[in-house]
Design a protein that fits this description.
It contains 2 helices and 6 strands; from the N terminus they run βαβββαββ. The chain is α+β, with helices and mostly antiparallel strands. The protein is globular, with a radius of gyration of 14 Å.
Length: about 80
């Protein structure tokens, strides 16, 4: 298996604030989703793609549960 366009997703408390932070380093916004405020913003710097997402909506969408340490899978990974 070869990955060609990987994306790192960081779960943050405020997508817009995190986007301003990474924008200061040269990241450019390429996607914004989920209304106002956004639940996910994607950014790009060179070939590096970064996703900034709220943990609550991501957990609901994937059927995972939120914990203090992040999002826990709903079933163990094999």
């Amino acid at each position: 298996m070869m990955f060609t366009d990987p994306q790192v997703i960081l779960f943050v408390a405020d997508c817009e604030r995190a986007a301003r932070f990474y924008g200061a380093f040269g990241f450019v916004e390429t996607f914004r989703g989920g209304g106002d405020p956004p639940v996910k913003i994607e950014m790009l710097l060179g070939g590096f793609s970064l996703g900034l997402a709220l943990p609550g909506p991501a957990a609901e969408r994937t059927g995972s549960s939120r914990s203090r340490r992040g999002i826990a899978p709903s079933s163990p990974l094999d």
